[in-house]
């Protein structure tokens, strides 16, 4: 397992908790709005963070930390993810997993082995092949059913979770948000994340405007028609 | 001798006009030089006459028709030097500024201190400060201490405020009990009946205090002491009073050159143990028959109202910088109902606006905070004061900071020498404190009609300024660079380096205790809030110890923007996680009795308030850190009023 980055103390990655966030390399998607694009495209440009170093940090600071947030890249691409989760849990820390939902088998196994305490899954667009492929930047045709499967696994897992959509002005409107929310019925939480253009991977997206706070409020209202516990995050 | 006598006779022939300082134009009279030399210096009469003659000759030979008093004085000084009368020349010094500097000051913005607005009040302050500083270095401190300051071995803070003590912790009880009755005031107010009036008294008293203190005006347990005025009042009414309090403090741009009053509001959710059984004073300064414990509900409602006001920000939605809200946390907080919700609310304020400070009073300590990091730990005597809380008036009279990196340069890697020089510098600092105490005592002894009349005012059997309780601060700058030069590693780079840093501060703490006993004064360590000192000392060291300083100084030498790390902080730009920062920096705090603080930089991201609240509680429980504040980065545009997180 190669870990490519760490935020040793984070107040923003898991609501209500103080966590360390670690970044795993590579991703099977190419979302234009990705703010970790170097991690996706050139993971080798980051030095490895030695796991030993992290374990020492976590052991020393168990009194302050609630858990570890594993993000990426796409963590579920790594076959030894369960082992990493187990190591963290042995320290008495909780595990939050960020995923794009493209690996339902991995999710099923992590849930079954009780290796995750919170799952945050990105749902990037309404579950229609064209829409999804456009946002994810890869042909999603064959994958859509797997994403649907991951959604179902998470909703019925009993593990605490949230689904989230990074909303981009000009791409996501109230109709899109409502359509996504409809496909997530039964979810515990749905979070809209305000897209921050200057961090985007694609030059085109960097030029886009940002949603205003009022517009974000309106999108949340649309989501609440299906998921009462919806909110937005961002600047 | 004959020649001299001849000259004296000739003198009356000079047709010269002199502009004198008193504002008149008079004809030349040589005897005025003799008189002033005899009045101001320890010179003997014959020498004074000799000098007067020589000066007259110079002036006569020049052929000028008009001359000013100050110029004559400079010519006299030149003659004093020729006669090697160095001491008398010093006594005869004229303080002032070159006309060029005065014009720059009056017409150009001061870029060094963003808190000082540019305007006539501000330039008055700068001009006065400049002269008082020169006066202090020449007259108040010994030449040895003055030289150490000028060389940058130590830094004497607020020299321009030489005739004021540094900072103060005050009690609202005093205002409640005695009303607003200041010496020499044209009108007097009886104790307030209504909370709004109490607020007005408080603000006006603060403004008056700011006129006699150089630094912060802190108010203890504000929500608790105001609580008896809120019985039967609605939340809406409380919020109105909270708004008045915050806005009035924030907008009084009247003090020290048109700055806001440097004010702190100390808040408690619980009723701290030392105030619980104290008899409460209510409207009209009368005892209510209840104790403060009985007003917990009103105190808590007012604390919440204040937080709501801070949350809303000013008329443009910007955060308030003054008055600073400082939440004290004692062990009792965790047994007081509703604390989790309140912590969440104040953590939200940290997350959104960043202005709340968290002060940790663990165990039996009680503390009063004065400014961003200065706090007084109350000792047993002080806790006796709590029974008569209007007496809880404390002050640090002066702050002297020691340039630590320079000590490492001078010690050249030798441990023993390093600690020896450190002790010498602390003794110099102690001498500086003795001098300041002597000077302030002299002013206080002039009584109610003297320059510190407000502090001499006696309403409860002792002067407002309780000299015997004054503390004297020993600050430190650049511990990190001292360690870095001495060991080759910064404090965050190895546990050995951190331990050495702790040893240095332990030594300082022990020395301050030893000196306290020797001088019978209270010397305590303080983390100097010393951004400009950090720059000044780094620059002086680059000058005097260039190769050593280059190894450790922070910032950019090319751009001339250099600094040492503040006090005992770890390198502020090193990637140290907030958890390890509060833990490691907190290891120093128990030795720094006048208060210390860890800043947690939040950057652009808006943190989750619940996580912030947890962080606060865990810092209290699992570290020895004394005080923390979360600092988001804010930019606000003065032209359009836009406020954003992040810097732009």
Please explain how this structure is put together.
The complex is a heterodimer of chains A (235) and B (648). Chain A contains nine helices and eight strands. With 235 residues, chain A is α/β, with parallel strands linked by helices. Chain A has one domain: TIM Barrel, CATH 3.20.20.70. In chain A, α4 (104-112) packs parallel to α6. Chain A is globular. The mean pLDDT of chain A is 93. Chain B is globular. Chain B folds into three domains: 2-91, no CATH class; 141-166 and 393-565, no CATH class; 172-390, Anaerobic Ribonucleotide-triphosphate Reductase Large Chain (Alpha-Beta Barrel). Chain B is built from 25 helices and 22 strands. The model of chain B is unreliable at 1-12 and 634-648 (pLDDT under 50). In chain B, α14 (296-312) runs parallel beside α15 (339-352) and α22 (531-544) crosses α23. In chain B, strands 4, 5, 6, 7, 10, 11, 14, 15, 16, 19 and 20 form an eleven-stranded mixed sheet that branches. In chain B, strands 2-1-3 form a three-stranded mixed sheet. The longest helix of chain B is centred in the middle third of the chain and has 30 residues, at 415-444. Helix content of chain B is 47%, strand content 16%. The chains are: A alpha/beta (235), B alpha/beta (648).
